[in-house]
Design brief:
seven-stranded mixed beta sheet, L-fuculose-1-phosphate Aldolase, alpha+beta, about 240 residues
């Protein structure tokens, strides 16, 4: 079982990596990581303090709150939209230890298209059967949206928030990062292919059904290697 210190270092490093990749939006968006609590206590998770850019996040200034938004350590402001989205999913999905939400240009663009993301490129094919959509209800600050958000996600791990952005969940940071990378690349490639002339070539459904199964081979170890090499590439360590 990883310690609170390890969780904080890993999550802070992830925030810095998002900044290095350009997956940031001023002081907004969120990455959360569930931390261990006794079975009889409410789930708790770490989130960025509101008001700081991702480049300013450190292990020490991450905020630990429970699913009701109550700080369990040093108190600091937390963005309400982040609390509404992330607390709902952490409470509903025991396997969602890490949740990542971004407003990348490619992600927001595809989220704004009526057709959403097509499964016709290398990366989007990996998401076949594991991609959900949630209709836009305005800025996500109302608690009454939480049940609908959870229902939209269901048991899937990738969510396109229509007219809004992207969200992924995972059992740990490296897995969630890999899932977001694939979803982001799928959106980027769709936008690039749509800018070219001629129709896109469809992938047969018989092939699409096999791709996600191939993707999971050796997933845990590979996801960790990918995440760690990206941290080294960006020169990030705590």
């Amino acid at each position: 079982m990883e310690s609170d210190t390890t969780h904080r270092k890993d999550l802070a490093a992830c925030y810095r990596l998002f900044d290095w990749l350009g997956w940031t939006e001023l002081i907004f968006n969120h990455i959360t990581l569930r931390v261990h609590t006794p079975d009889n206590e409410k789930p708790e998770y770490l989130i960025n303090p509101f008001g700081l850019h991702y480049a300013e996040v450190t292990p020490g200034n991450l905020v630990r709150i429970d699913i009701d938004g109550v700080p369990t350590g040093a108190a600091a402001p937390v963005n309400r939209a982040g609390f509404v989205i992330h607390s709902a999913i952490h409470a509903a999905r025991d396997d969602a230890h890490c949740i990542m939400h971004v407003h990348t240009t490619a992600g927001c663009a595809v989220a704004s298209k009526e057709s959403g993301l097509r499964h016709d490129n290398f990366y989007s094919a990996m998401l076949y059967g594991d991609l959900a959509y949630h209709d836009y209800e305005g800025v996500t600050t109302n608690l009454d949206e939480q049940p609908r958000l959870v229902e939209s996600l269901g048991s899937r791990n990738h969510l396109i928030l229509r007219n809004h952005g992207l969200l992924v969940v995972g059992p740990d940071i490296p897995t969630a990062f890999n899932r977001l990378w694939v979803l982001q690349r799928a959106c980027e490639i769709q936008l690039a292919s749509d800018a070219g002339s001629g129709p896109n070539r469809a992938i047969p459904e018989s092939i699409l059904r096999t791709v996600p199964q191939t993707r999971v081979a050796g997933k845990g170890e590979v996801h960790r290697m990918i995440f760690e090499t990206m941290l080294r590439r960006a020169g990030i360590s705590f």
